[in-house]
Amino acid sequence: MKTILKWAGSKSGLMPELVKHLPAGNRLVEPFAGSCAVMMNTDYPAYLVADVNLDLINLYRQVKEHTRPFIVVALSLFNQNQTEENYYQVRKDFNFNAALPLLERAAQFLYLNRHGHRGLCRYNKRGEFNNPYGYYKQPYFPLAEIEAFALKAQCATFECQGYSETLGMVRAGDVVYCDPPYHGTFTAYHTDGFSDDDQHSLACILLGISERNPIIVSNSDTLFTRSIYREFGLNKVTAARSISLTAGEKKQAAEIIAVRRPQSSPIWMGFDVATGTDYSCEAEVKP
Fold first, then answer.
1. Residue 273 CB: number of other CB atoms within 10 A?
2. pTM to 2 decimals?
3. What's the CATH code of the domain at 222?
4. Is 63 within the bounds of a domain?
5. Which of 47, 80, 193, 227 could form a disulfide with 188 if both were Cys (CB 3.0 to 4.6 A apart)?
6. 82: phi then psi, degrees, rounded to nearest 5
């Protein structure tokens, strides 16, 4: 299933391989939201999706909670702002209008994503969105993807927070999938970036959690990542790439899917016996 956003490193194309490593569980926990391709292409009873990018999380919350108003506002932006001049005016408003309502900000974020260069999500050190205009003839408005996401999101909780806070919320029966900024690639999509120290810290936290919960991680296939995930089972895959390539380069890159599961991993679908919480969800989108 396609996603609302164009996204560097989206897992849409890798899902046939990735789902082989995702076991059943009460809830899927994702500390790095990205395009939400994994949420949209799996069928867990519940989801905890987090990211440090507030604009990203705000978009997902607005689509979940205010689906129809969001569609109206976003579609109006797409229909009325088709030029390069319009793009930079929307970007200026997005960056400097402190009074911008959250719904409109989410619509502008989608507009900038679909009209900007290769759909990059990029900020400068001041936290200003700075991706240039993309020169597309007819940017796609993802109506079907928005409606599908709004339905699926009724079973999801979206949090704006770092990976350590999110992993601290993992409980019995959860499955953890991590798709951090890839080692050795563009990792500064948000103001603080993602350093080698962050990569190592994440791996250490995940190793501890793996004593009680299944862990699946995607990353670049490098000596560094193979070292920090040496206690995991490593599966090499090849994924498509379209960002930062020059003419003639092959749009393929080597990745690893690192997997580690507890020795004993009983699953109680839809019910956490530790807390007595029912995570089953049959909610529908309200018009």
1. 11
2. 0.86
3. 3.40.50.150
4. no
5. 193
6. -105, -5
